[in-house]
Design a protein that fits this description.
The protein is α/β, with parallel strands linked by helices. The strands form three sheets. The protein has an eight-stranded mixed sheet with strand order 13-12-11-14-15-16-17-18, sandwiched between helices. A seven-stranded mixed sheet has the order 1-2-3-4-5-7-10, sandwiched between helices. A three-stranded mixed sheet has the order 6-8-9. Helix 9 (249-262) runs antiparallel to helix 10 (265-280). The longest helix has 21 residues, at 617-637. 1,4-dihydronicotinamide adenine dinucleotide binds next to helix 12, helix 13 and helix 15.
Length: 710
């Protein structure tokens, strides 16, 4: 803690020693008349490091002892209020002073503290603000308790003070979902006393002076919780459980709020602390922490440090089908003007209609206003004319998955666009090197692989060719940031990272059928593991024809492609829901999968030479998951992925792998790679999987995958 002179001139500190003997520069005190302004300055986000906690504790002590000070404003330098815990301290033994003690000390301060919030007051930051007697905020600020997203509950009284401030309904919403809320909503809910339009600190000081004239409200610890309506807790438990699915933290957070409503303050605080400590060491918290760090690392790849991305202020999409319309919607959602190019006028109209349907659907579901949907469409120009692309910064091609069609599109794009424009293909399986062959300035070309529906799915695989320049790769990462997506760099191979692992998933799923499992049993086991859908249901939804087309291409290249049952289904034109049957039968107008006798007969015929086994949920999951991990290790070994955590991000954000499992690679490491190797050896000995690859065996021996980014 340091003291600065009074803003109006001479230092007014009654304790000059604090300047010379306490050089904690992360927390400083300035006096403006009888109001002290305590400023936290711990860039980049004023995280609650040990130094900040100590500085704040010293500040409370010093200001309590200072007879000139009547009130205290707590504010932060830089772009935000205290945005949460110090992630550098995650997983390490906590060092004093502990946050709950600090918050309690601020709450017991002799002078009223006013939290002056700009940016975000999240987690521990918001708990500090709840320790203050008042909270004021800029209009753009937000507050929240996002701990459940890391598999935790708030640990410094958030679940106990929040219902005392704003009632149980608001507390349950905020604590169990973890979503931050804006200052105006927070003000309406009573979380913030006033919104300050102009200078935050000046406004907070004025606010502090006015409250000095009135009786102070009770500290939150001394307030009671308003009674909830009958049936409230049962209803809350039902809806939180439905949303959380298998995640533990949301229901535990609900239990904390309930305890806060039903027990005295100290009992509730002890219960919250106990819950926090129990969850901190849980497998789910470790998995969610891993994903949190993986996501942070993904947006700033070290290999691009210092590279300035090409600017992207406008975009075009070629092809307005499923993917093109979704990509255009994502670009519009990010505020970029979009030109949509199709092959003829009728296709332009269909493409625009696809796009309109996306926005209208969002408006119907209440995700955006009708005006916003109209505004999104007003920013789109549909055309067949490449001349409209002369000034565009980024073009994403999403035409048919056909090499010749794509090459022709890029030949025209190379001629029509600026030499600096970024030209991207959304191909799923074609080789981007071959798509780009012969275009002028191939340094501007790369793969940007979106996932369906592109306006929703978070993953963006970024696939450079040998010629792609670093500033174009960096533009891919910058685009992901603009679109609020998770970028993962992938090398060129059949299916990049995600679809290459998906192929293994499907091979394993068929091996299971050939050795005695049913489609329904396999799907149920994978759902029980936490996936939103099993592999067969997913194929029926997406259509079996896409993978069949890709297998045909692979076989034409002389590669082997194992899908004896899927091949038979496609030959029988069972392409999935769209053809009334695939791995399951469907009644017209009903998407409920029904076990199919036709499929059972095909499986029985194909399985004649296979040994039958008894399968149960766990062994089914092992038979699918460990080969996926093995493929992940191969993907690392051949450089298709640069970081093991990138593989986890691909599966989580592109394929619905449960976040709370941490992704397949994290899950395998937590389970024990030596056990995974043994399981693969056992499966391989029965012809049910490939044997473990060298990198996986080496990683098992060394206790984990080496990750160059950590
Ligand atoms: P789609 O068949 O729904 O749409 C393709 C569109 O491209 C059609 O509207 C067609 O009129 C248009 N088109 C064809 N040739 C054109 C040309 N020369 N100029 C302008 N427009 C032309 O196909 P979808 O599913 O949108 O796939 C597009 C691309 O995205 C493919 O490369 C596919 O592999 C890839 N992809 C597809 C995913 C999916 O889940 N459907 C996921 C990720 C990538």
């Amino acid at each position: 803690m340091s003291r600065r002179p009074d803003r109006q001139g001479a230092a007014q500190s009654s304790d000059p020693r604090s300047r010379s003997e306490n050089p904690n520069m992360t927390v400083s005190i300035e006096q403006i008349g009888e109001v002290a302004v305590v400023t936290v300055d711990n860039p980049p986000v004023n995280a609650l490091s040990q130094a900040v906690r100590q500085g704040l504790l010293d500040a409370v002590e010093a200001l309590d002892a200072d007879p000139f000070v009547k009130a205290v404003v707590l504010t932060c330098a830089g772009r935000t209020f205290i945005a949460g815990a110090d992630v550098g301290e995650f997983g390490k033994p906590p060092t004093p002073p502990h946050l709950p003690d600090l918050v309690a000390r601020i709450e017991r301060a002799k002078k009223p503290w006013v939290a002056a919030i700009h940016g975000s007051a999240l987690g521990g930051g918001f708990e500090v603000a709840l320790g203050c007697r008042f909270r004021v905020a800029t209009a753009s600020a937000s507050v929240g308790l996002p701990e459940v997203r890391l598999g935790l509950v708030p640990g410094a009284g958030g679940t106990v003070r929040l219902p005392r401030l704003a009632g149980v309904e608001t507390a349950v919403d905020m604590v169990t979902a973890g979503a931050p809320i804006g200052a105006r909503t927070a003000c309406e809910a009573g979380l913030v006393d006033t919104v300050i339009e102009d200078d935050l600190v000046a406004g907070a000081v004025t606010f502090a002076r006015t409250v000095l004239d009135r009786p102070l409200p009770d500290a939150l610890r001394d307030r009671s919780v308003a009674a909830s309506s009958a049936g409230f807790w049962d209803a809350a438990a039902g809806s939180v459980a439905a949303r959380a699915k298998r995640e533990e933290a949301p229901l535990r957070a609900l239990a904390c709020v309930r305890r806060a409503a039903e027990a005295d303050f100290e009992t509730a605080i002890a219960f919250e602390r106990e819950t926090f400590l129990a969850l901190r060491g849980s497998a789910q918290a470790a998995a969610l922490r891993h994903v949190f760090f993986a996501e942070r690392a993904a947006t700033r790849p070290p290999e691009l440090a210092g590279v300035i991305p090409r600017t992207i202020g406008s975009a075009a999409v070629i092809g307005g089908g499923t993917m093109g319309a979704g990509i255009a919607a994502a670009l519009r959602d990010a505020g970029l003007p979009v030109v949509l190019v199709e092959r003829d006028d009728g296709a332009v109209e269909r493409g625009l209609a696809n796009l309109r349907a996306i926005f209208d659907g969002a408006a119907k579901r209440g995700r955006m206003s009708a005006d916003a949907a109209a505004e999104r469409m007003a920013g789109v120009i549909g055309t067949t004319d490449y001349a409209a692309l002369a000034d565009i910064d980024l073009v994403v091609e999403a035409v048919f998955e056909d090499l010749d069609v794509k090459r022709e599109v890029f030949r025209r794009l190379a001629a029509a666009c600026r030499a600096e424009a970024v030209l991207a293909t959304n191909t799923s399986y074609l080789d981007p090197e071959r798509i780009a062959e012969g275009i002028s300035r191939p340094d501007r070309f790369l793969g940007l692989h979106f996932f369906s529906p592109a306006q929703v799915m978070k993953l963006l695989e970024i696939v450079p060719t040998k010629a792609t320049s670093p500033d174009v790769i960096a533009a891919g990462f910058a685009l992901a940031r603009i679109l609020n997506k998770i970028p993962v760099r992938a090398g060129i191979c059949d299916g990049f990272i995600g679809n290459r692992i998906l192929k293994v998933t499907r091979v394993q799923a068929e091996r299971l059928l050939l050795s005695g499992a049913t489609p329904a049993a396999v799907d149920a086991a994978m759902r029980a593991f936490g996936l939103p859908m099993g592999p067969f249901e997913a194929q029926d939804l997406g259509g079996l024809d896409i993978a069949a087309f890709q297998r045909k291409a692979a076989r034409a290249r002389g590669e082997k492609s194992f899908a004896p049952i899927a091949d038979r289904l496609c030959a029988a034109r069972r392409f999935g829901q769209k053809s009334g049957g695939g791995w399951y039968d469907y009644e017209p107008g009903d998407r409920t999968p029904r076990p199919s006798d036709v499929v059972a007969a095909i499986i029985a015929e194909e399985a004649k030479s296979w040994l039958r086994r008894d399968w149960h949920d766990d062994s089914i999951v092992d038979c699918i998951l460990w080969p996926m991990v093995n493929e992940g290790a191969r993907i690392l070994a051949d450089g298709t992925a640069l970081r093991v955590s990138d593989i986890d991000l691909v599966k989580i954000h592109g394929y619905g792998f449960p976040r709370w499992r941490g992704g397949p690679m994290h899950y395998a490491q937590a389970y024990g790679l030596d056990k995974v190797v043994d399981a693969l050896d056992a499966l391989a000995s029965e012809g049910l999987a490939d044997p473990p690859c060298d990198l996986l065996i080496a990683a098992a021996r060394h206790g984990g995958f080496a990750d160059p980014s950590r």
